Amino acid sequence: MADQFTRTRLLIGDAGIEKLRASRVAVFGLGGVGSYIVEALARSGVGTLDIIDDDAIAESNLNRLLYATQGNIGQPKTEVVEARIRSICPDTVVHAHRCFYLPETADRFDFTQYDYVADAIDTVSGKLQLAVQANAANVPLISAMGAGNKLDPTAFEVADIAKTSVCPLARVMRRELKKRGILHLKVVYSKEPPIVPNGDAEESGAHQKRQTPGSCAFVPSVAGLIMAGEIIRDLCGIER
Fold first, then answer.
1. What's the CA gap between 121 and 143, in Å, rounded?
2. Residue 25 · residue 231 · CB < 8 Å
3. Dihedral Cα 49, 53, 56, 58, nearest 10 deg
4. What's the half-sphere exposure (Cβ side, CA atoms, 13 Å) at 72?
5. How many helices (H) and strands (E) does the chain have?
6. What is the rounded CA–CA span in Å between residue 41 and residue 104?
7. How far is Cα 119 from Cα 179, in angstroms, rounded to an integer?
8. Contacts of 195 by beta carbon, 8 Å cutoff, 6+ apart
9. How far apart are CA 44 and CA 41, in angstroms?
10. Are strands 93-97 and 48-52 parallel, antiparallel or unpaired?
11. Rg for the chain, CA atoms, rounded
12. pLDDT tens readout for residues 95-113
């Protein structure tokens, strides 16, 4: 009998569908990358999703966030994403956490509950803590490297952090993870040199200037879908 996963079942079989239904995946960050990760996981039938973000939808999100519309500007991202997941698959269990993941908030999350973790957050300190916490719990983690200031969606690669090059964020992550004794981490990254954005820098704490990164509809979305694909394949044990 046909159901909403009929076409997926043709590719991964009943065993794959059941594996996804029994899995719990946490997605940290619901921006341009994370919104597409969550969408693909929900449409693939992952049974339980934890979604973590503290932001509300802003007008500047309309160019790239999957769920951002004129009608939900100002609403918390977690609330909008939870409602969207339920509209796609009402049986999905959703745990929404409205907070920023940082070293200071890491103890709110028990990683032993998760079958997989997706890192789609922006801060280096948060990314490093995610890697440390996932490593300690022996939970698979996939991390998004820099997707801002880029225009080539075909340049993304899946790699071990130890084998990355060019990407400035990956370089920092390699160095800092090594200090923490973590030598391996699956990442999605691009060797496309970042574009220098047009526009003025904005103030960012203590009157320091920070350049807002440029972004578009078709680069972070591709990174997110690649990450979701890796999660699905790994959970189902599908080898390349």
1. 9
2. yes
3. -100
4. 19
5. 6, 9
6. 28
7. 20
8. 149, 150, 151, 214
9. 5
10. parallel
11. 18
12. 999 999 999 999 999 999 9
